[in-house]
Amino acid sequence: MTIYTAPVADTMFVLRHVLRIHERKDLPGFDEDLLDVSASALAMVGEFCADVLQPLNAVADLDGCAQAADGTVVTPPGFVDAYRRFAQGGWGGLAIPADQGGGGMPLVLAQACHEYVWSANPSFAMYASNLGHVRILMKHGTEEQQRAYIPQLASGEWTGAMGLTEPAAGSDLSLVRTVATPREDGTYAVNGGKIFTSGGEHDLTDNIIHFVLARLPGAPEGTRGLSMFLVPKMLLDDQGRPAVRNGVAASRVEHKMGLRGSATCQMNYDDATGFLVGEPHRGLAAMFVLMNELRITASTVGVGVAEVAYQNAAAYAKERHQGRSPIAGRNGDGAADPILEQPDVRRLLLTVGSFAEAARALLLWTSLQSDIAARSDDPDERHAAGRRLALFTPVVKGTLPDFSFESTVYAQLIFGGHGYMTETGVDQFIRDVRMAAFGEGVTAIQADDLVRRKIGIDSGRVVEQALADIEDDVQAAESTGQVDSASLMAMRTGLGHLREATEWISAADPAAAAAGGVHYLYLFGRVALGWMWLREAAAAARLRAAGEQSPALERKDALARFYLSRLPIETARHLDLMRAESESVLSLPAAAF
Ligand SMILES: Cc1cc2nc3c(=O)[nH]c(=O)nc-3n(C[C@H](O)[C@H](O)[C@H](O)COP(=O)(O)OP(=O)(O)OC[C@H]3O[C@@H](n4cnc5c(N)ncnc54)[C@H](O)[C@@H]3O)c2cc1C
User: Fold this and answer.
1) Is 444 in the pocket of ligand 1 (CB under 6 A)?
2) Is there a contact between 209 and 158 (Cβ–Cβ < 8 Å)?
3) For residues 130 and 159, what is the distance between their CA atoms, to the nearest angstrom?
4) What is the DSSP string of 271-305?
5) Coil, strand, or helix at residue 188?
6) How far is the CA of 80 from the centre of ligand 1 (A)?
7) Same domain membership, residue 226 and residue 173
């Protein structure tokens, strides 16, 4: 049986003291009372997650999704009711603009709320947001499509699904073979098969809106020949109500290692009626509206699952008594000490906790860039924030899920052999979070995006600016004496390694850059997390200078020092491995494997 309490105080610390969202009143939606609204929204969502969603998490893992003979899919017990209440609360559409029927919240706040859903019940969270689908329609849909589908997606009355992957087309979507043939009435007959479609079929809503990549007859080969089609499970009548079953059905629900309550479906499109969204052959560009959204979502999985793994491991470490602690003064009455008094258990807990809290700050910082890019009335600021978002999207997607997976394994170790037994529930964290490394492009694809596209944006000026921003924060923390000198030195060294790595990989030949790409990505991610710790430690110091003393501030200092003390060791390792492996992995000919 696992536990979960939403970390509202820590989220508020990040929003108020690190990102200072209340100072951005110039942005539409960042109103005077934003901090109050944030505190109450976080408390409300947090309570729902702890009371309703978390108890269903083990059920989701145990029962999974079942497929009936008619192809329909039944979600785990309790999901239908929980989804109804979740949608009624408007929590799936928090960041969808209010004039489209959503909550109109800044993304930074919506992501903060969604983190709690991912902690409480990752399978449920897979159905929980239609933001990307709505954004596609707002940007590329016709007025008729917007009228017919946005309100129900925004309210959660219907859910959206994404059909990209096919048996022979995964990372490489140029191999997509699904076809769409124009009909005389202006619709398209979609034929083909997709695999791994999350939420492709389920019983939570009476319609599911599939966004599908397919090829028109005579379309060019490659990704430039892909168009996007909206394929509803149920075709609508004149009143816009689901009326006639469309030719799209799940032929199978996958058996997965985790996320078993999320219906991952093999879909057949058999003369299904589709509606072209956007321009012919420009489907992949349109789909990136959704994919970029989901890339940030995959990072949220990493934060949410690391947090819940930490909470459970910390609670266990306090109650489990084994052996005597070597920490001076801890051996009292001769009985065994709590394992929390074992330095190695502390090491594991600090590793997980210092990742989870910095990851939360980094995710929310990234989401804030999205808000600034969408809402600022200054075109230069909008442009700069959009560039920062583009640069950091592969960094957060490529690193937070992987580092979170690592964290859940550390958390499992704290449970000893009990962590290997399914009744503790820790194994589910490991299995559930693993998926985030695959969806929306595997880690290597994120590294490829970062190295081949993102660090080259504006001839490298965007990455240079990002490094300069980090350097500015180090200098500010130094000049105000807010952060201890060892942490500052560590941050400078890590940043230096990132600079060196950026220069090296920018100049490397394509094969060497591809071989070293994941190390470069990890190095970037570790520095970005260190940057967040620097900002958190500086914020804690400001509060102390203003007279505030609390265990929460002491904890921030300790976690910052722990993370930053390791940073240069980790970054040096990635830098060395990036250079070394770029040669060694290419030395063995393919035939010798
Ligand atoms: C639980 C789950 C849910 C999913 N939901 C959806 C969904 O809703 N809709 C959807 O369309 N898809 C979905 N997917 C599919 C997911 O996006 C793909 O699995 C992913 O893009 C990888 O494709 P693939 O599995 O075919 O792996 P492949 O592309 O075959 O890759 C295999 C391995 O080869 C390597 N590799 C491949 N190409 C490169 C490259 N260019 N550079 C470096 N290494 C490379 C990587 O190591 C990779 O791990 C889901 C997947 C899972 C597991």
Assistant:
1) yes
2) yes
3) 6
4) EEEEEEESSTT-HHHHHHHHHHHHHHHHHHHHHHH
5) strand
6) 29
7) yes
Compute CA distances 485 → 355, 473, 529, whole Å: 21, 14, 18
Any idea which residues carry the catalytic annotation?
440
Q: How confident is the model at residue 331 (pLDDT cuts 50, 70, 90)?
A: low
Q: Which domain holds residue 273?
A: 159-280
Q: How many residues does the chain have?
A: 593
- Nearest in space to 505 (alpha carbons), one of 587, 410, 575: 575
Instruction: Identify which of 123, 126, 165 to mutate to test ligand 1's pocket (most ligand atoms within 8 A of the CB).
Output: 165
- One domain for residues 75 and 196: no
Ligand 1 midpoint to CA 441 (Å): 6
Q: What angle do CA 48, 51, 56 make, to 5 degrees?
A: 105
Among 78, 97, 132, residue at a domain's last position = 132
Q: Which residues are CB-neighbours of 513 under 8 A, at least 6 positions away?
A: 451, 452, 505, 582
Asked whether 437 lines ligand 1 (CB < 6 A), one says no
Q: Tell me the per-residue pLDDT of 349-391, one tens digit each, with 9 for 90 and over.
A: 999 999 999 999 999 999 999 999 999 999 999 999 999 999 9
Q: How far apart are CA 287 and CA 4, in angstroms?
A: 35
pLDDT digits (tens, 9 = 90+) for 176-202: 999 999 999 999 999 999 999 999 999
Task: Mark whether 228 and 189 lie in a shared domain.
Answer: yes
Total tally of structural domains belonging to the chain: 3
Give the CATH number for residue 39: 1.10.540.10
**Residue reference for tokens 């000198």:** 485
pLDDT tens track for 75-92: 999 999 999 999 999 999
- With bands split at pLDDT 50, 70 and 90, how would you rate the model's confidence at 335? confident
Q: DSSP class of residue 18? A: I
| 173 touches ligand 1 (CB under 6 Å) | no
Q: How far apart are CA 65 and CA 439, in angstroms?
A: 19
Q: Whose CA is nearest to atom 52 of ligand 1?
A: 439
- Does some domain include residue 435? no
Output the domain CATH number for residue 171: 2.40.110.20
On whether residue 323 sits in a domain, the answer given is: no
Co-location of 205 and 260 in the same domain: yes
Strand partners, 249: 268
Report residue 363 CA to chain centroid gap: 8
Q: Which of 88, 115, 132 delimits the end of a domain? A: 132
Asked if residue 145 is part of any domain, the answer here is no
What is the distance between the alpha carbons of residues 413 and 430, in angstroms, rounded to a whole number?
12
The pTM score is: 0.97
Task: Assess whether 115 and 238 both reside in one domain.
Answer: no
Mutate to test the pocket of ligand 1, among 61, 65, 133, 171 (most ligand atoms within 8 A of CB): 171
**For 77, which DSSP code?**
T
Of 263, 252, 255, 259, the closest CA to residue 205 belongs to: 263
**In a domain? residue 318:** no
Q: What is the dihedral of CA 138, 143, 144, 146, to 10 degrees?
A: 20
**Do both 22 and 107 map to the same domain?**
yes
